[in-house]
Amino acid sequence: MIKVFCEKLYIQLESEIEQIAVTKPTPLKRLTASLNCIQKSLIELKDYIIQNPLVDQGAEIEFFKKVKPAFSGQTINYPN
Question: Per the structure, how many domains does the chain have?
C-alpha cells in the first residue's frame, strides 16, 4: 500500500515538474515553482508515512534508502 502511494506521488511530482518546465518562461521561475512542488510532495509523503507507519525494518530501510532520496533528489534535477 505504501509503495503504491509513493509511486503515484512520484509520478505526479514528475508530471508537475515537466509541466512547470513547459509553462514557466524563466529559469528562476521554473526553479522556484519546481522547488515548491517538491516541498509539497515531501510534506505529503511525510504526512502519509506518519499516518501509515512502516511495518518492518526492511520497509523502513527501503523507504529511507530509495523512496525518500528519489523525491529529495529532484531538487538537484530541476528543469533548466
Answer: 1
